[in-house]
Fold:
Amino acid sequence: MDGEDGAVLTLAVLYPDLLGTYGDGGNATVLSARARARGLDVDVVEVTIGSSLPPASLYLLGGGEDGPQRLACDLLAEGGFVDRVGEGAHVFAVCAGLQILGTAFSIEGDASYPGLGLVDAVTTRGTSRSVGDVATLVEGRMLVGFENHGGVTVLGPGLEALGDVLVGRGNDGRVDGYRASRLWATYAHGPVLAQNPWLADEILGALIGRELAPWPSVADRLYAERCATLSIRRPAAARTGDRH
Ligand code: GLN
Structure:
């Protein structure tokens, strides 16, 4: 069995040599393992500095420091990444990756740097760094992970957040990430798809154009443990569904 159009699913990890600080490359490992367990044919490629951008079913972007983040943004702009996405590729972006896809983000010294402009999101520097566990309610399900960023991201009116933050800060203390056609973004590291098997399967389902059969694994136990732990830490207002 293979991808939607009979092709192999290609997962391209973008610049792990620049955006690899937080282990987000593990998201591709998780996706490929879960895809292969369902009989799907998957190829994982790493796009490093100096290599050209291949066509892919899904591009994965991770987190990194401000300087490497700026360089990764430049390389993506020069390499035709926006065109690839326009042609139908999917994108999963974490933290620095989330910021790069927006219209602008802040870098060392608080200067604003132009992003790729794929989505209407602007990141400025917060007054304090957001570090620690993060949990977000995404259409009734918890997304768990940890965050470590100085940026605060504000979404434009037409851009939907991924979900409401229950623990931690996410974009701005209220919502985390964003969700657009063929595109998911979150501040959660982990790697987040290892901690949230449901999101890994949602992404794979979007790539092949149908829902996947459940694939129980030890990841379900880790997810249940993280949800139980973080639920205890949810403020009372969030437990009743109100934003805090
Ligand atoms: N450099 C960015 C910030 O601090 C992104 C950090 C990250 O990817 N964890 O906001």
